[in-house]
Specification:
Layout (H helix, E strand, L loop, with lengths): L2 E9 L2 E9 L5 E5 L5 E7 L5 E3 L7 H7 L6 E2 L5 E2 L3 E4 L2 E4 L8 E2 L12 E6 L3 E10 L10 E10 L3 E10 L3 E2 L3 E2 L2 E2 L13 E4 L1 E7 L5 E7 L11 E2 L1 H4 L4 H5 L5 E6 L7 E5 L4 E7 L3 E5 L9 E2 L2 E2 L6 E6 L14 E2 L5 E11 L2
Antiparallel strand pairs: 1-2, 2-3, 3-4, 4-5, 6-16, 7-10, 8-9, 11-12, 12-13, 13-14, 14-30, 15-29, 17-28, 18-21, 18-23, 19-20, 19-22, 22-25, 23-24, 24-30, 25-28, 26-27
């Protein structure tokens, strides 16, 4: 499986490249070395027709001006950190405030806004790109020099695998995710309200007014947050549940997964027959249904707006450093941060 490399634009005078992977079935993945952004992902419908199923742009200028993290790797820490500060080993660290008083997705110059080194992987049954980046001690306020690798591979089974790897020379925080917005209708024919999601989760994290976890886990039973038997995304948009209302009518919540690497999530578009199966080693996932997406730009000719995509951000619990009862995202010198998420695309008759 070959990999195509082409120029995509420039950021701060540096060339940005796009890499395209294609398998024998016709599935195609394109991604940038800027932010490891997945720009396009062509997947089959029930008739075998391949169309793009992620939100993105055709120019680097649009990513710089309009993108709400479309397709990017976010970090060092995904999600919000309360009051943009934390304490480690008796030391206090201050981070940039880029969402009110809080720190979001690694800051204004987080991993989604830098150019990564890229190495092409070509094999008979899969191809890929290994992105690497060295985040220096103190970058965006975080301690320790962090060496990060993110690998995207596409195989003949229509699977995209994302592997994360990081090491540090001093204790720091690491919690990475990919922020792709999925819309399985194909080429943005419709919004995602009629998409159905099945998710193996009995609890979700309660949020406060700043969309930060309160520390409390809520049971999904009897609520629009119960996806165990599958439900439409629209259920959360029409809901009067205080947590749906809080985030702008929809979902922007972390869910605790019952188990890992066993098809924890299945997203489907009944009209096209497209299905996305997500399996992860992570303990939780943030479900975001683009409730607050602005209608001020175009997405490849289609007007932006609410409910255009579904994000399934596999990761550790957000703001864990402020909640001792959460699984922590602390990485110490000598330890290895390593995790994998697999996305399998099918067309279901």
């Amino acid at each position: 499986m070959k990999v195509l490399q082409e120029e995509f634009g420039q950021v701060d005078g540096k060339q940005v490249y796009q890499y395209t992977l294609v398998n024998e079935q016709g599935m195609r993945l394109s991604c940038l070395d800027y932010g490891c952004i997945i720009t396009e992902l062509f997947a089959p419908d029930r008739e075998g027709n391949f169309e793009n199923v992620v939100l993105g742009f055709d120019s680097i200028e649009d990513y710089l001006t309009h993108s709400p993290y479309f397709g990017a790797i976010v970090g060092r820490v995904a999600g919000r950190i309360a009051e943009s500060e934390f304490e480690l080993n008796g030391r206090r660290f201050a981070l940039p405030k880029n969402e009110g008083q809080n720190h979001l997705h690694g800051g204004p110059r987080g991993f989604s806004h830098v150019i990564w080194d890229a190495a092409i992987i070509e094999g008979e049954n899969e191809s890929g790109i290994q992105f690497s980046y060295v985040s220096p001690d103190g970058e965006e306020g975080y301690p320790g020099t962090l060496q990060v690798k993110v690998t995207y591979t596409l195989n003949q089974a229509n699977q995209l695998k994302i592997r994360y790897h990081a090491t540090t020379d001093q204790t720091t925080l690491v919690n990475l995710t990919n922020h792709s917005y999925f819309n399985l209708s194909g080429d943005l024919k419709r919004n995602v309200l009629e998409h159905t999601l099945t998710m193996d989760s009995k609890q979700f994290f309660e949020l406060d007014e700043a969309l930060l976890p309160t520390g409390k886990l809520l049971n999904v039973e009897g609520t629009p947050f119960d996806f165990r038997s599958g439900r439409k995304i629209a259920d959360g948009i029409t809901s009067s549940h205080p947590q749906n209302v809080l985030v702008g009518q929809g979902y922007d919540h972390p869910f605790l997964l019952n188990k890992q690497q066993s098809q924890e999530m299945v997203l489907s578009d009944p009209e096209s027959g497209r299905q996305l199966i997500v399996a992860t080693e992570e303990p939780s996932v943030v479900l975001y249904t683009s409730n607050t997406m602005e209608d001020t730009f175009k997405i490849r000719g289609t007007q932006s707006g609410k409910y255009m995509g579904v994000c399934l951000e596999t990761q550790g619990p957000p703001d864990a450093i402020h909640h001792p009862n959460f699984k922590q995202c602390t990485l110490e010198a000598g330890q290895v941060y390593q995790t994998e998420t697999t996305y399998t695309f099918n067309g279901v008759k």
